[in-house]
Amino acid sequence: MSIMKIAVTGAAGRMGRELIRAIHVQEGCTLGGALEQEDSLALGQDAGLLAGLGKLGVVITDDPLDVFVKVDAVLDFTVPAATVEFAGLAANARIVHVIGTTGVNAEQDAAIVAAARHATIIRSGNMSLGVNLLTALTRKVAEALDADFDIEVLEMHHRHKIDAPSGTALMLGRAAAEGRSVKLDDVSVRSRDGHTGARKRGDIGFATLRGGSVVGEHSVIFAADGERIELTHLAADRGIFARGAVKAALWGRGKPPGLYSMMDVLGLDQAKPAD
What we know:
This protein has 275 residues and is an alpha/beta fold. The chain is built from ten helices and twelve strands. Strand 10 and strand 11 (227-235) form a beta hairpin.
C-alpha cells in the first residue's frame, strides 16, 4: 500500500506541531498538507520548520479545498465551527477525518454525523490509549456497581482550555451512564453552588479545575458508604494524543464511511459505525 498522505489543521498551534512531529516519525505516512486560519502569521512558512524538524517542503496554507484533494486523511484538533466545515470537505473528498475537537454543540454534532455518510470520521474526546482503556473500565465498573455508589468525574487542564467539562470528562461520564443503562443528560450535574441540598441518588457529577500548564488529568470516583474506588489517568505529554490520532488515521484507511471512535481503533468496542 502507498504511503498515506496526512494533512494537519491548525498546524502552527501547539497541538498542530505535535501532530506534524507524530506523522514525521510514524512509518507508513507522510505530511501531505498543513492548514491555518487566513490571518495566521504562519501562512507561507514551511510546516516542518515550525515543528522543529527542518524543512519538509509542505507550506502552510489557508486553502482547505486545495489541501483536501491531495491527501488521504486530515487530523483536526481545532474549534467546532472549523471542524464542521472540515467534515463537509472530507465527505466531498471521501477521505479520513480524525477529529479531536471538543466543545461541539448538538447542531454541530448533527452536521458531523451527516458528513460521516460519505467520510470515514474517527472522533474521540481523547486520542490516548490510556484514556480509552479508562473509559472501558469506567463502563464496566459502573455496570457492576449499583446506585449506592455515587459517581463523580474530576478533571484538570491548563489555564488556556476554553471548554468545560473537557471532552474526555464527558466521554467518561457517558461511559458511566451507559454502564448503568441511563442517559447522561438525565443524570448529569455540571455545577454546585450555594445551598444545593443532598446529593440525588444516581446522579453523575462533574468537577472542573483549570490552572498552570496541566496537559490533562481525569479521575472517575465511585463513592459509597465506607469505601471508594478511584480510576485515574494522568497525561504529561501532548504527544500521546498526537500519536493516537496518527494511529487512528492509518486504521481508518480503507474503512467504509461512518462515525467511529478510538474504541474501534483499539478494538475495545465492537459497535458498528453510524450511518
